[in-house]
Structures are given as C-alpha cells and as structure tokens.
Amino acid sequence: MAKRYFDLFEDVHVPGRWHLDEPVDQRGQKLGNGLFRRGEPAHIEGRLRIPLYFPGKALDFSLAGTSIPVVHARVAAVFAELAPDDVQLIPVEVEGQSEPYFLLNITRVVKCIDDEASDEVRYVTPEHDLPDQLGEYRSVIGMRIDSSKVGNAQVFRTWGWVAIVVSEALKEALESVSATGTKFTEVTGPSSISAEERTRDRKIRELLETATTAREAAWRTLGSLDKEVFMPIAMSGSWPGHRQLWSVIRREAGRTLLVTHGLSDPFIERLESSVGFGLELALEVDAAVKDISKGWPLLLLDRVADEVAEHEQVRESAKAGLFSMEVSGKGLPKSLVTEEGRVAVLLGVESRTLPGHFSTPYGEVKLITVKALLPSELAYLLEHGADGQAQLARRFVESGEEHLSRLRRKPVA
C-alpha cells in the first residue's frame, strides 16, 4: 500500500486565536523566516523570544511570522519521538506564556512536488526579479507529491515551496494528543476535488489576483508599499472575497498610510468580475508606525471596516459623501475616547495628496479617507448634524490637517 502524506498548516479558523510575530534573539533582532526554511540546523546564540503579533487564544501549533512552526512542549515531544532525524527543537519564550514552547526547525527538504498531478503550479521567472528563487515555485495549488521520492522522512519541507509535509503516522500521533491549531490536507493520491470544483477555484483565484494586482499598482502611486510587514490574513464572510486584508504604505515626511485591501474584491460567490463594495478605506498618521499590529491606527481602521463591510446603509452613505460614525473605544488612545467609551470618525474628508478613486480592470474604486475625531468634535457633530460634518471637514482643510489622524492636535470644534 502506498504511503500517505499530509500538508500540515495552521488552522486560521480557530476563533480568537493568537498570531505570533517573527522570533527575536537576545539582542532583540528579528531572525526572519528564511533562516528556518533552509532545511538545515540553525545555530542560535542565547534564548529566542516570540512576541505576540495579535494576542488571543494560545495554540499548540502556530506559524510565527509567515512560516516558522512554534509548538507546545507536548507537540514537540511527538516530533522528538517520531521524527528525531528530521527536526531541530529550539526552546523559545512566547510572550505571555509560562508553559514551555519550542521553535520547530524542519531540517529535511525533499524535492517531490508532482507538477502534473497538482492542480496548478507557477514558477518564479526572470520577470519577478527574484534571482535567488529563480526556477522555484511561485504558487502551488492543490499540491500533490510523488511519495516514492520521500524515503524515510516523517516530516519535511518541499523543495522550492514553503509547505510542511508529515507522514500519516505523525499526523495520527498529533491528532491523538489533540494538538490545537493543526490542520491537514492529504497530498498523495488523486485530487480530492472534482474537475468542476477545480475550474471554479481557478476562476476565483484569477479574479482575486487581478483585483490584488490592480490595487497594489494604485498603492505604489501613493508611496512605498511595505511588503515586509507581516499582516495576518483573516477570513471574513462579510468581505466580498471572504478575505480581510490590509496594506501599509510608507509616505513622505515619515507618514504611514493604512488601507483596506479587499473591500473592492469581486464577490466570489458570483464568479464574475466586479469591484465588490466599490470602495477601500484609508487612514493616515504622521508617524512611521513600526509595529503595525499593536498600534491604534490598525485597530481603529479594522473597526470602521467591519461596520462598512457588514452594513449596506453605512457603505452607501460613505460613498455618497461625508459620513460620521462611532465605534468601540476599547484599546484606543484615551485622547480619542469619549466618556461613553466610543471613538468617532469622519469619512470622506478631502485630501490634496490622496486620490478620490482609482481604476482597476473591473471598474472604478472609491478611496475613502478615515479621520479620527476628538471628543469635542463629536459633540459638535451631534449638535449640528449634517451641517456639522461639512463645517468640520472645511475646518480640517483650512487648518492643513485634512484627512490626517493625529492624537496630539488642537480640536477644530
């Protein structure tokens, strides 16, 4: 009987799960993903620490950064017993955890991806300007491997791709200890999806990829698109493409622009080109925010985006012109929070440095600014209604503040 193998990855659908940042050494320097994707032992001085990118429910198996496995001690024991020749277990301190965790460095790489049996493979070409990765895989969809090339490995990384593959015995052992955070997809045998499903999935990927490419081209006209920032992808049924994405743009004078990166995705259920909700949101601050995930700008933009995605009336009002709204102030700076624990924003404030819309192959997308208001400005809005919105927007432009969100500024009302 042919051996069975499984792709092991983190279950991103665990409610309230944590997100781990890249490991840092004793000097506080990030080590990056590359060191632990080479398939060889890593030489580390001192004890490593794993900061939390987003706090949440601790998991037994997680990916720090984008691809570095971090496991609880009881999961580490399974790997140590069944795959001692395939892994290096490095003790790490995970922020906020007293229990022992280990960085799981997989020290074996196997060239075994079956290009013909996989649903779709794409390669890095000279056009991608990645000389160190030339000839490797740019994407692998519906991966299948040739098990005859695996040998006696119990866990390994696939050559040219970031996948982690485990044997059936190791999969069953992890399931027997109820390791949280693990998810498995078989990569041996015939594909588990039908030809119709494969065609549908390919169409969805093409639609989303076209939208993503067009948006990133637009973002690059606004500044330097920071591709090094790790922004976890969240699944959200309320967003058109069922994926909740963000982009970070570094701007002149040290400013940081955060934008939603998926509200204009096509509606994937319809399998047709569109601009989704027809808008994206932009929040800019006057600082070079380094730790995006722990900063208030992303937290505020996330809450505003949730309201926009979930309520049609909010979306249509925002697209029509100036629109104010309130969100929870939990975890946001005190200078923005009202006595009732709320934070107000004004959407659609004019900007001389940001366009009001941008083009994609699927149509025009409106770029709507998000301006954080001070409590006194919210009080002014509540007293003056729609006219108050126009007055505030005019004063922001006259003061030079425009759409910029700042914690330390004089209120305009």
How would you describe what is shown here?
This is Immunity MXAN-0049 protein domain-containing protein. With 413 residues, the protein is α+β, with helices and mostly antiparallel strands. It has two domains: 5-186, no CATH class; 210-399, no CATH class. The protein contains six helices and 24 strands. It has helices spanning 73-82, 168-176, 195-220, 296-310, 312-320, 375-399; strands at 5-10, 19-20, 48-50, 52-54, 61-64, 68-72, 87-94, 101-106, 109-110, 120-123, 137-141, 155-158, 164-167, 182-186, 224-225, 234-235, 243-244, 246-250, 256-260, 279-285, 323-328, 342-347, 357-360, 363-372. Helix 1 (73-82) runs antiparallel to helix 2 (168-176) and helix 4 (296-310) crosses helix 5 (312-320). The longest helix is centred in the middle third of the chain and has 26 residues, at 195-220. 34% of the residues are buried.
